[in-house]
Design a protein that fits this description.
Blueprint lengths: L5 H16 L24 E2 L7 E7 L7 E8 L4 E6 L4 E14 L9 E3 L4 E4 L5 E16 L5 E2 L9
Antiparallel strand pairs: 1-2, 2-3, 3-8, 4-8, 4-9, 5-6, 5-7, 5-8
Length: 161
Amino acid sequence: MKTISLSGLTLLLTLTLGLASAPAQAELPYQGEGHLITHAENLSWGPVASMGEGAEIAVIEGAMSEPAPFTIRLRLADGYEIRPHVHPAYERVTVLQGTVHFAHGETFDRAATTALRPGDLAIMAPGVPMFGYAEGESIIQLHGEGPWGIEYLDPADDPRQ
């Protein structure tokens, strides 16, 4: 059995505690180099071309256009409507702030939605139409596998048009 000296233990603890308290040096969006430990206020928010005014995105990790995992956050203004659409891959959503109402279907219908509050989640299958809206300023975290995309059922709902 190998033993460690008191000075060796002190050195090991110093190194371990020093590393644990060191600030994260990774920049967002994270690309998988080591650990990412950061605070929400460090996220960089910007417009979402595929969602239009009232929605902002913060990319946490990955490139949504590549065949790899990604994590993003979406900030939605109070009353923001997510018009009926589909995605090419599974969408995994966790509500972090506010209330987001989701439903599946081809026609936007507020009465058909389920209210999701902080901590609640939804997993939507690829190719299955869905829609929703935000009640109060809301933030959701979305995990998926790229390449990612959104196709609105009604092209008039697509702000990229």
